């Protein structure tokens, strides 16, 4: 049981980690609480499903993620950036965007459960647990993607700029970082990460147009748990909530009803004691 | 005219109507709206239309209560369904266990929601912005989890059905709901435009500054939570008894997001904006049932397009074009006037070309 929790928790952490990092980038840099974030992930999974019928895995995955990237950047440029001053409006525009993606997918593919064939069928034994090879592949993929994203953010000048904007917009602007350029990159990178998470999940999960609702709450909770604007915090939050979810589903009777509830309960408890999240900064008060 | 209302005097009322209500498109629309709601059954007693209007009025009250908390005070609640659903469940359970009538259980449910509002509001003293929104979001979802865990007491997934009806006929229910709706709206509107409402505005704009001038912001934030939760609970209780079921749907994330969509669509921090938003969007969603498959798609597209071009909401966007403020005395004027109705200053100064 313990090893099952460990392995499944790690796989789920990888997926949530990619989603949470993308969400945190979008919020931290472009100040958009993007409730359509996991809709991008759903769209990527369906894109993969669509293109796989026509071509091999690699080009299909590439096309699907590029498609999502394009949708996200278009939405940002055409809808969200012009409305930035109106916070509440941005919020419901992202909701409408998520609904729109969901309905388009529903119209194109119907409400049936779809599945994508696993790239690596079969199971292996890890610590005495039968794990689908596909899950291990997804974990590996998530690890590589997160490392690359980390290298980009830590190692390049652009990444430095993005992190600076996430920490303190005004100070970043004062030292000459272009907020709009950082915003474009962050939104693009965030959507791309969501798309990659969707690609990693697609062969393991059943696809349906509402599959973005449950992870959305967990990702929101993970990012806030870590502290808004903190990228390592978002990753840590994702790991904590992924493990909490796996533990509850495995150990508590009737736990499947409670999986999101537990994530949010942890969030509330942490926020009561640390109102700015685990890694958030209390001083950067924007007025 | 800022003298007290003297509606018992007919000449005064007529003068008031002519100079203060009919002179402004916004107020005329509000008057027509109230008359429409009150006189609608004279035009048609079609049960379906009455049902749609009743539900719209309920949800409009719900949206207006969200606006008081989130639009005015800036404490953006993404879990307003907590108050709405909790009051519905409380009313249903009180009615079942104690055998009280809805006339008693609905207010009791709303009071319980008020208590819940203060409870949810307590973290708002330490949290701000998205942190607070996320905590409010957690409450209805936690409650849903509990409801599924104890199906014997709460009815589980199916909810509690067979609640007593609000009135004998659809018409009676309609007038009851519309009456409660209009009175609550009047209260919310008066509160929002009072001194207290001014503090709410100020807390949203700059809480530190409000505290600096010696206002106990904690008290006002809790007050906003309590009042808002009370009216959300009132709407929730009426809704449960109108549909005769209190189910987990009333606590769903979608039900928390709905008032946000309606309010922002109409225009936040106005009270009348959310009402207009609900009365535009809710019946529209009903009409769109003719094309069931395209219904939500059209809805989402409409919201995207309208918000893109009227980011402050429909009502403000339209009113800005229909009314303008006199540059000298700040009195509102209809767009058709050339001089201000109060001080006679020309409203449209032609630009002098050099």
Would you summarize the structure shown here?
Chain A: Keywords: Amino-acid transport, Cell membrane, Membrane, Transmembrane, Transmembrane helix, Transport. Chain A is an all-alpha fold and 287 residues long. In chain A, 71% of the residues lie in helices and 3% in strands.
Write up what this structure looks like.
The complex is a heterodimer of chains A (287) and B (354). Chain A contains eleven helices and two strands, in the order H-H-H-H-E-E-H-H-H-H-H-H-H. Chain A is an all-alpha fold. Chain A has a two-stranded antiparallel sheet. In chain A, helix 1 runs antiparallel to helix 10. The model of chain A is unreliable at 283-287 (pLDDT under 50). With 354 residues, chain B is mostly helical. Chain B has helices at 10-21, 25-43, 47-72, 81-98, 102-121, 130-149, 151-154, 170-192, 195-205, 207-212, 217-243, 253-266, 272-287, 295-309, 314-322; strands at 160-161, 245-246, 323-325, 332-334. Chain B is globular and about 80 Å long. The relative contact order of chain B is 0.15. Classes of the chains: A mainly alpha (287), B mainly alpha (354). At the A-B interface, helix 4, helix 9 and helix 11 of A face helix 6, helix 12 and helix 14 of B.
